[in-house]
TrEMBL record:
UniProt-listed Enzyme Commission number(s): 3.2.1.-
Family: Belongs to the glycosyl hydrolase 1 family.
Single GO MF annotation: hydrolase activity, acting on glycosyl bonds
Annotated source species: Virgibacillus dokdonensis
SUPFAM superfamilies named among the record's database cross-references: (Trans)glycosidases (SSF51445)
Database matches in Pfam families: Glyco_hydro_1 (PF00232)
Keywords: Glycosidase, Hydrolase
Protein name: Glycoside hydrolase family 1 protein
Active site: 387
Length: 490
């Protein structure tokens, strides 16, 4: 045996940060951009029920009509973001100051095809991303591009009810081919869909589907996922034709599941929870549906509409790497609502051994090491941790400082476990912390739930100067990157 132990992060490890277009760009109606599904996420008081409600991003048909007919009555924070659209040079310079090797961003489909139905793309939208990629290239920062990150042209929801319609497959393939032809010399790392498994949590956010317009929400979520699997596979095939040197991956929200007890029924339920999560990369890495889902669909009265050619499309469009987000682990047990708990962010079963964030998310760095090992053992494909971070309320002091030792502690502990996983033999490509600059929260549309190393002066109502300030964690992460993960400030 000639293998040697990898004790440090690889020399070409991709350190950086992650964002999404609908949470940072703003300029929702500029330069020909059309309305997207995320533009309809109205701000709602997340504390109205007496506790933090982490999910206010769902929109039904009644709400959608109300928002379209009376937009002035509501706040839509994702429409203004943090004005990255006009401040991208300033922000990228700050990323470069930290030493980023990679910056994860997404492309707004509605900025390229305003309704999704156009024959020709919007040149102004394409030109904007050209400028962003060129600015990143100035600092030798690789872009990691998510093609669909929790938004799509609103017209496709209105006309087809989103991804429950097979019509979207061809429209997405057209979008993908335009991106690949335009940016083939500027972008080599791509992700097709962000956190596809979260369709099971919010069918509107992940798939643009109005839940009150379908008979069976779970079936619709899996039908939408099937169409996204096909669209992703066709995009992978197109990428290999147009830019054979590129790397294209899938992505899930990895939620490590623990059994509540050693009771065999609880252990079995933990396995089932893992399978629901792993179903998505199982299809996209292995190119076919796993047998356990055949039983799940049968027992839960889920009937998918498919075509004979689907199997071939999936088999020919498998991905190069698995990207994933990791924020927490969950505890599960054998109980009637176990399936619902497995994918929820606010599980009623608490882990007594873990601390909670200010948003009651369990903090579990060792769970990350477990997840890394499970994913790599299962697929033997490179992994990319593209989201991980701590949402917290940060305070800007009078002298322009932000002291965030809690964020440093959180990320440091997760980096330690990443290094342990690398020593376990896991092939890890890189790490992009979520919300490297403060942005609009996905779930609550808050600004006050801050993740970044860079503070943005803006409140939940959109008030503020939008000035950028370096937090203590900014300087700490800069040292981490410069030392390739060796200097963690101990």
């Amino acid at each position: 045996m000639n293998q040697s132990l990898q004790t440090t992060f690889p020399k070409d490890f991709l350190w950086g940060g992650a964002t999404a277009a609908n949470q940072i760009e703003g300029a929702y109606d500029k330069d020909g951009k059309g309305l997207s599904t995320s533009d309809m996420a109205a701000y709602k008081d997340p504390y109205a029920g007496g506790k933090v409600d982490n999910f206010t991003f769902n929109v039904n048909s009644v709400e959608l009509e109300e928002y379209l007919n009376h937009p002035d009555k509501y706040l839509f924070p994702k429409r203004w973001g943090i004005d990255f659209y006009h401040r991208y040079k300033e922000d990228i310079a700050l990323f470069a100051e930290m030493g980023y090797k990679v910056f994860r961003l997404s492309i707004s489909w509605a900025r390229i095809f305003p309704t999704g139905l156009e024959d020709k793309p919007n040149e102004a939208g394409l030109a904007f991303y050209d400028k962003v990629f060129d600015e990143l290239a100035k600092y030798d920062i690789e872009p990691l591009v998510t093609m669909s990150h929790y938004e799509m042209p609103l017209t496709l929801t209105q006309k087809y009810n989103g991804w429950v319609s097979r019509e979207l497959i061809g429209l997405f393939e057209k979008f993908a081919r335009v991106l690949f032809e335009r940016y083939k010399d500027k972008v080599k790392y791509w992700i097709t869909f962000n956190e596809m498994n979260m369709n099971l949590n919010s069918i509107y956010t992940g798939a643009g589907v109005l839940a009150d317009k379908v008979d069976n929400v779970e079936e619709a979520a899996y039908q939408a996922s099937h169409h996204q699997f096909l669209a992703s596979a066709l995009a992978v095939k197109a990428a290999r034709e147009i830019m054979p040197e590129a790397h294209i991956g899938c992505m899930i929200n990895q939620i490590e599941s623990y059994a509540r007890t050693t009771k065999p029924e609880d252990q079995l339920q933990a396995l089932k929870a893992d399978q629901i999560n792993m179903f998505y990369p199982d299809v996209q890495v292995r190119g076919k549906y796993p047998n356990y889902m055949v039983r799940y669909f049968a027992e839960n009265n889920i009937n998918l509409e498919t075509k004979p050619e689907d199997a071939k499309i999936l088999a020919e469009g498998t991905v190069d790497f698995i990207a994933f987000s990791y924020y927490m682990s969950h505890v599960t047990e054998a109980r009637p609502d176990a399936a619902k708990i497995a994918g929820s962010f606010d599980s009623p079963i608490k882990n007594e051994y873990l601390e909670l964030s200010q948003w009651d998310w369990p903090i579990d760095p060792i769970g990350l090491r477990i997840s890394l090992n499970k994913l790599y053992d299962r697929y033997q494909k490179p992994l990319f941790l593209v989201e991980n971070g701590l949402g917290a309320r940060d305070e800007l002091t009078e002298d322009g400082k932000i002291h965030d030792p809690y964020r440093i502690d959180y990320i440091k502990k997760h980096i330690i476990e990443m290094k342990e996983a690398i020593q376990d033999g896991v092939e890890l490509m890189g790490y992009t912390t979520w919300g490297c600059i403060d942005l609009i929260s996905c779930g609550t549309s808050q600004m006050s739930k801050r993740y970044g190393f860079i503070y943005v002066d803006q409140d939940d109502k959109g008030n503020g100067s939008l000035e950028r300030y370096r937090k203590d964690s900014f300087y700490w992460y800069k040292d981490v990157i410069a030392s390739n993960g060796e200097n963690l400030g101990e």
